[in-house]
Amino acid sequence: MRFDRKLSVLAVCLCSLGCADFHRGPAPRDAGADAGADGDAALVADWTFEIQVYPILESRCQGCHQGGGMAGSTRFVLTGNARMDRAMVVALVTPGDPGASLLLQRATGEAHAGGQVITQDDTDYDTIANWILGLSAP
Ligand code: HEC
């Protein structure tokens, strides 16, 4: 009996891990998908963003792009909370078109006072580009 229960707990864990890791479909639409309990439709659960993309932004951009930082008065200011910041980041990209996305253009040094932070052959570039490719058009 106990063994059975352990097995089903394991199955549930594996399933949720699998769903997060192998999520290849389009990211959830912004409107209403899994909105927070407070009903804020802007708070979307997007695991690819939270687990893969946001840590890159935190480690490579937040030094300047934070409140009071060198780029603290731009449209790209990170708070440290991925779910809160997602809508702001989405507003800086062109869903489905990484090359046309301001976020990646600036990150690669195009008209960016912060210089070239990421090169196009960097795996972090691919991670962000793949996330943008998976976003559905607004
Ligand atoms: C050394 C500091 C520095 C770093 C690191 C840095 N930036 Fe910037 N960034 C700036 C400054 C300063 C500006 C404002 C002036 C400008 O637009 O070039 C800016 C502007 C931007 C803008 C335009 C925002 C707007 O309001 O139009 C984007 C997008 C951007 N950066 C993305 C990034 C990304 C993505 C990273 C990390 C991969 C990054 N930056 C890392 C300094 C930095």
User: In percent, how helical is the residue content?
Assistant: 40-55%
- Main β-sheet description: none
Give the end-to-end Cα distance, rounded to a whole number of Å: 49 Å
Q: How many domains, in number, for the residues?
A: 1
Give structural notes.
- It is a single chain.
- The protein has one domain.
- α2 runs antiparallel to α5.
- It has 5 helices and no strands.
- With 138 residues, the protein is an all-alpha fold.
- 44% of the residues lie in helices and 0% in strands.
- Bound molecules: heme C.
- The site of heme C (HEC) has 20 residues, from α4.
- Heme C binds at residues 60-61, 63-65, 70-71, 74-76, 92, 102-103, 106-107, 112-114, 117-118.
List the helices and strands and how they pair.
Layout: H1 2-21, H2 47-60, H3 82-90, H4 102-107, H5 123-134
Helix pairs in contact: 2-5
The structure holds heme C.
List keywords for this structure.
binds heme C; 5 helices
A few lines on this structure:
The chain has 138 residues and is mainly alpha-helical. The chain has helices spanning 2-21, 47-60, 82-90, 102-107, 123-134. Heme C is lined by residues 60-61, 63-65, 70-71, 74-76, 92, 102-103, 106-107, 112-114, 117-118.
